Amino acid sequence: MSLAYIALGSNLHSPVRQLEQALTAIAALPETELVSRSAFYLSKPLGPQDQPDYINAVAAIQTSLPPLALLDALQEIERAQGRVRLRRWGERTLDLDILLYEQQIIRSERLTLPHYDMHNREFVIVPLYEIAPDLVLPEGQKLVNLYSSFADHQMQVITPSL
């Protein structure tokens, strides 16, 4: 089993529910176990500002799926939850990104690991730090050093209604 970290985001059609359903679907993937998940964070959109704010989280999983098979499975979850790609960094029902897969570095047309821009995204680094504060990235950078840039973030923690 390999340890992977997945970023989750949604800003359409009940975003909290979208993330909860995605976490359930990820946990149900073959040869995969949901190890931990962060709180849900409310954040401003990365791209165009004429869209709703996002709900973001990060999950840690143990999986036997190889990276590209995991990517395929995550994209199928996105499709099942109604993801339509209308514009770059635009609104979406669900966005699932593999952030890290063990210590692998992959540069391919379909997949870049570690995620190409995770270092610059507070809505990734803050929830990742919440569940893996001692993490060291494949290039040797400590997550705690990235987190220090975002320690004063203004994101709001969202408590799902039960």
From TrEMBL:
CDD domains tied to this protein: HPPK
Function, in words: Catalyzes the transfer of pyrophosphate from adenosine triphosphate (ATP) to 6-hydroxymethyl-7,8-dihydropterin, an enzymatic step in folate biosynthesis pathway.
Molecular function per GO: 2-amino-4-hydroxy-6-hydroxymethyldihydropteridine diphosphokinase activity; ATP binding; kinase activity
Keywords carried by this UniProt record: ATP-binding, Folate biosynthesis, Kinase, Nucleotide-binding, Transferase
Stored InterPro entries: Hppk, Hppk_sf
Organism placement in taxonomy: Bacteria, Pseudomonadati, Pseudomonadota, Gammaproteobacteria, Pasteurellales
Domain of life of the source: Bacteria
Entry similarity comment: Belongs to the HPPK family.
Residues in 7,8-dihydro-6-hydroxymethylpterin-pyrophosphokinase domain copies: 88-99
Name used for this protein in its record: 2-amino-4-hydroxy-6-hydroxymethyldihydropteridine pyrophosphokinase
Pathway in which the depicted protein is active: Cofactor biosynthesis; tetrahydrofolate biosynthesis; 2-amino-4-hydroxy-6-hydroxymethyl-7,8-dihydropteridine diphosphate from 7,8-dihydroneopterin triphosphate: step 4/4
PROSITE patterns per the UniProt record, alphabetical: HPPK (PS00794)
Its EC number(s): 2.7.6.3
Pfam families: HPPK
PANTHER family per the UniProt record, alphabetical: 2-AMINO-4-HYDROXY-6-HYDROXYMETHYLDIHYDROPTERIDINE PYROPHOSPHOKINASE
UniProt record, GO biological process: folic acid biosynthetic process; tetrahydrofolate biosynthetic process
Organism: Mesocricetibacter intestinalis
Top-rank EC class of the record's enzyme: transferase
